[in-house]
Amino acid sequence: MAAASTGFPVWCISCVLVSLLAHVATSAAEGNSSLTCVDGIYEHGGGICCLCGAGQYLKEHCTTSEQYGECELCTRNTYRSLPNSLDSCEPCTSCSQPNANLVVKQACTSAIDAKCQCKKDHYCSSGTETCIICNPCKECPKGIKVACTSNNNTVCNEIEGKPHIGLIMGIVAILVIGLGLLALFYIRKRYQRRHQIPSVPSAADPEMQHLAAPVVDLQPHLSDIADIIGWRDMQVVALRSRMENATIESCRLDHPHNSQEQTLQLLQIWVESQGNEASRILIQSLQNSSRRGKAEKVKDILSRS
Known about the structure:
Layout: H1 2-34, E1 41-44, E2 47-50, E3 56-60, E4 67-68, E5 70-73, E6 78-79, E7 90-91, E8 102-106, E9 115-118, E10 122-123, E11 135-136, E12 144-146, E13 155-156, H2 162-195, H3 206-209, H4 222-240, H5 245-254, H6 259-274, H7 278-288, H8 292-303
Parallel strand pairs: 2-4
Antiparallel strand pairs: 1-2, 3-5, 6-7, 8-9, 10-11, 12-13
Helix pairs in contact: 4-6, 4-8, 5-6, 7-8
GO biological process, one term: regulation of stress-activated MAPK cascade
InterPro entries: DEATH-like_dom_sf, Death_dom, TNFR/NGFR_Cys_rich_reg
TNFR-Cys repeats: 73-116, 117-156
């Protein structure tokens, strides 16, 4: 009786142990199955392969479904931050570009890219997490209002008296402009006086009454007078008499390359415009334009008539 009472508990304990062992074995099998591709899978050649982990790249695809192929660690200065089936790693970001003013904030590893930051006394104005170029912080001779940060330039104290400086500069600018205008006006007036063509005195002027040149009809002597005066000086005489440029130009175009005929035609028109006092006015005009030698020759011709 005693043996029967002790056998029952042993049998029960044995059954419980067998059940537990079976459950543990099943759980272990399921666990091993779920841990086969811990980083995910990808399709290749009609089968399924496990992705290589972060910091690795795929060298050879798997030959058995749901198994890893040949994965290798990224080489120096390269990385892969995510599980992948790619055949190479990405190059790490460089913080040593010329004139970029960057330093390494976080070194590159096989699974994490490098992070850069501005070096001391520099800031990034791009407003983004990744900065390409850093600029030097502004220097403040009168003191700093807001210090320079990695993303913002220095704000300097306002310079006292700045409005007064602006006012002084404005006054100086006005004075310079005013003096420049006065100088321009003076130069223009001087130029006009130098190049002004004095008017030819009329026959009624007292000075004309005392000229030694006689009042003579010039028509018979036009050819001889034209030879003495010449085209250039005849133009001066015509301009002093306020003759229009168009009339002078017309004479030149009527006889191209023949200055004698040009002079004769212009002299004829000029004599007709001056009337009976043409001889006196012609001599006076030549004298006033520093052509005294030609004026004397014309007087000689007229005195012989």
